[in-house]
Write a structure and sequence with these properties.
Shape: globular
CATH superfamily: Carbonic anhydrase
Strand order of the largest sheet: 2-1-3-4-5
CATH class: Alpha Beta
Largest sheet: 5 strands, mixed
Radius of gyration: 17 Å
Helix content: 40-55%
CATH topology: Beta-carbonic Anhydrase, Chain A
CATH architecture: 3-Layer(aba) Sandwich
Number of domains: 1
Structural class: alpha/beta
Distance between the termini: 17 Å
């Protein structure tokens, strides 16, 4: 079992390789590695990330087959199925690090802000379920001066959404709460920059230290 602190260091180092374009992904996805993980997996981190095609966690963190347990959903929202997936990996594989990974210019966050300002009547029930989960984390921002600065509004909304998702994982599951209190599970929030490739771990880091 890899402690949360060590797992976090691996992700940070992998992201530095990615940003510097010195990735070693070929070795991590080799034929030998495929054979090695075919019999079982031992991921060292759980990533709850956005489905955005520009933010594939394994590439962003320069990790290979069997290294990351990745859950992807538009807006990196937390619903029962996502909580269950995190519980599964944490209990079954002993993973002790969970990262909620948002990203700059998130379309789901932007769609929620637009919906709050200009409601649409023909939005599908399924899309609305995503918007409704992002809504509580960003709604209050529209009452601030940020409403006059669209770029700053989206930037703050992305981080607010990550914080809320991380909090929901910490406090929305008896299983995860027990693992946090007794087994060293850590949930942190991070944002990936589409422009630079850098992942900024900005939330929950005190627990990982």
């Amino acid at each position: 079992m890899i402690p949360a602190r060590e797992g976090l260091a691996r992700l940070q180092e992998g992201n530095r390789r990615f940003v510097s374009d010195v990735r070693n992904g070929g070795a991590l996805a080799s034929h030998a590695r495929r054979n090695e993980v075919a019999a079982g997996q031992e991921p060292f981190a759980i990533i709850l990330g956005c489905s955005d095609s520009r933010v594939p966690a394994e590439i962003v963190f320069d990790q290979g087959l069997g290294d990351l347990f990745v859950i992807r959903v538009a807006g990196n929202i937390v619903a029962p199925s996502q909580i269950g997936s995190v519980e599964f990996a944490a209990e079954r594989y002993g993973v002790r690090l969970v990262v909620v990974l948002g990203h700059s210019r998130c379309g789901a966050v932007l769609a929620t802000l637009e919906e709050l300002q200009r409601p649409t009547e023909n939005q599908s029930r399924n899309l609305r379920s995503i918007v409704d989960r992002v809504r509580p984390s960003v709604e209050a921002l529209l009452a601030t001066e940020l409403r006059h600065d669209p770029d700053a509004l989206v930037r703050d909304a992305v981080r607010a959404n990550v914080r809320v998702s991380a909090s929901q994982l910490r406090h929305g599951s008896d299983v995860l709460e027990q693992l946090i209190q007794k087994e060293g599970l850590v949930v942190v929030g991070a944002e990936y920059s589409l422009e630079t490739g850098v992942v900024d771990f900005f939330e929950g880091m005190a627990a990982a230290g």
